[in-house]
């Protein structure tokens, strides 16, 4: 059917319902007078409300026929045509809403058969909101039109409520009106909402059926794989793992694993491993020997640390550690120079590492997190190496001093005594020597032996004790050895 013909049909649908009511009433009166069945005042007892309801049902049948004609329009032209019709419906509803509100007619008032203006306005509101409901439930794209066009939505909501309160529509029309209101969320939409007029429903049902079939096939495949499964997935054999591998990838996610399968590092040429959504608490160092790895998924596990040799994965580009218990990263993490994507969200990270990680709320932020965290770990590694060098120097000095104290030569003894006399500590020990000497006059032999031992070994013990305390101090304060003096 051509567009011109459809327009003619729609024009007929939007004709004056009140005129038709009056015409029908006149025919009824003429016929009554002809057959002398009704008195001249019988028209006062006509139920105009019921009469309009019957005529409205006829109009609705015409509207349904018009909708079927629109459905048969070529799809490429149908949308534009429907939008144009909706635009006209909106204008008619707005115009007659203004009329009804200006006169002050309420939807609960009696049917205004004595006012042509009111009856026309009321008829056009009911007929056009019903026609819009037919269009809306059959062409779902109008839902988006409603969301975009605020004025259209406003007048449709008003007309829907007005029509419901009048009670002039038939049951079938109210059913379509409610369906339209649910679809456009004018009234609450039930969870099991189904639009029986939606032609796309069949397509969605087929897609849903296909999805269920795919899920069923996946479940059957999983059962086939796990029928020989052992008590623990961590003991799954190398052969079973090879069967699971597909194009250098293996998916072991959501399998209830508490340990990484021991044979996993033996699967050759793996580049992608997914161990996400399990209950793994620790990663074996052998996993980090799989240097071909490019992508490693470890999200939603119970990991609280990573292996110290994680830096051996020099080709790793994607690392997912989302939702674990990690606080810090090993220093070898600084060697992951190929890392391009990192997610550390939902981990109790230390403040500095958390700051370097950022939000990881998007693809871009996860990429930036990889760059920032690797740079942060490189800085941490440099600081650690500097501290270790200082520690080594201190240890060497301690060993040197202890060695001199244990194996003194005859010449060193002489030098040691000479040095003792110049050191402030020597004065301290000499003072104690004389104190002990005078305090033990009754035992001259004891005083002489004790004084010789104190003078010989006292300074050496002080130096050793001083250096040992220096080790502790420099470890915490990072003080250079040459700037630390014993007293």
UniProtKB/TrEMBL annotation:
Signal peptide: 1-19
Organism: Ancylostoma caninum
TM region positions: none
Pfam families per the UniProt record, alphabetical: ERK-JNK_inhib, LRR_1, LRR_8
Protein name: Leucine Rich repeat-containing domain protein
Biased segments, Basic and acidic residues type: 204-223, 400-410
SMART domains: LRR_TYP (SM00369)
Ranges for region Disordered: 204-226, 400-424
Domain of life: Eukaryota
């Amino acid at each position: 059917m051509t567009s011109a013909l459809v327009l003619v049909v729609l024009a007929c649908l939007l004709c004056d319902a009140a005129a038709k009511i009056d015409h029908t009433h006149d025919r009824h009166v003429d016929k009554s007078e002809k057959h002398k069945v009704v008195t001249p005042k019988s028209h006062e007892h006509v139920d105009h409300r019921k009469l309009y309801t019957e005529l409205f049902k006829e109009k609705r049948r015409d509207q349904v026929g018009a909708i079927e004609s629109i459905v048969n329009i070529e799809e490429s032209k149908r949308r534009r045509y429907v939008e144009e019709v909706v635009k006209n419906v909106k204008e008619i509803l707005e115009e007659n809403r203004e009329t009804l509100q200006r006169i002050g007619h309420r939807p609960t008032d009696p049917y205004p058969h004595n006012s042509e203006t009111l009856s026309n306005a009321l008829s056009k509101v009911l007929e056009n909101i019903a026609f819009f409901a037919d269009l809306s439930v059959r062409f779902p794209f109008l839902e988006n039109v409603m969301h975009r066009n605020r004025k259209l939505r406003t007048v449709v909501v008003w007309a829907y409520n007005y029509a419901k309160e009048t009670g002039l529509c038939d049951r079938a029309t109210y059913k379509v009106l409610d369906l339209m209101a649910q679809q456009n969320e004018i009234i609450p939409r039930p969870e099991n909402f189904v639009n029986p007029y939606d032609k796309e429903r069949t397509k969605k049902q087929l897609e849903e059926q296909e999805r269920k079939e795919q899920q069923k096939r996946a479940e059957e495949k999983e059962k086939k794989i796990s029928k020989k499964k052992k008590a623990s997935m961590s003991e799954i054999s190398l052969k079973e793992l090879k069967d699971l591998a597909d194009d250098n990838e293996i998916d072991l996610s959501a399998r209830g694993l508490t340990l990484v399968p021991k044979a996993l590092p033996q699967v050759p040429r793996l580049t992608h491993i997914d161990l996400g959504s399990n209950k793994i608490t620790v990663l074996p160092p052998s996993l980090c020997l799989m240097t071909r790895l490019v992508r490693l998924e470890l999200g939603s596990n119970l990991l609280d640390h990573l292996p110290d040799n994680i830096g051996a994965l020099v080709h790793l580009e994607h690392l997912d550690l989302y939702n674990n218990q990690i606080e810090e990263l090993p220093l070898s993490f600084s060697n992951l120079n190929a890392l391009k994507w990192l997610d550390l969200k939902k981990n109790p990270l230390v403040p500095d590492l958390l700051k370097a990680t950022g939000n990881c709320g998007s693809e871009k932020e996860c990429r930036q997190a990889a760059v920032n965290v690797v740079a942060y770990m490189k800085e941490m590694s440099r600081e650690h190496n500097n501290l270790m060098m200082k520690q080594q120097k201190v240890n060497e000095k301690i060993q040197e001093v202890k060695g001199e104290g244990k194996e003194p030569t005859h010449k060193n003894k002489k030098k040691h005594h000479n040095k003792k006399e110049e050191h402030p500590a020597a004065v301290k020990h000499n003072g104690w020597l004389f104190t002990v000497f005078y305090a033990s006059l009754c035992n001259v032999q004891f005083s002489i032996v004790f004084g010789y031992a104190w003078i010989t070994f006292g300074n050496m013990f002080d130096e050793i004790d001083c250096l040992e305390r220096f080790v502790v101090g420099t470890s915490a304060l990072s003080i250079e050895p040459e700037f630390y003096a014993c007293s």
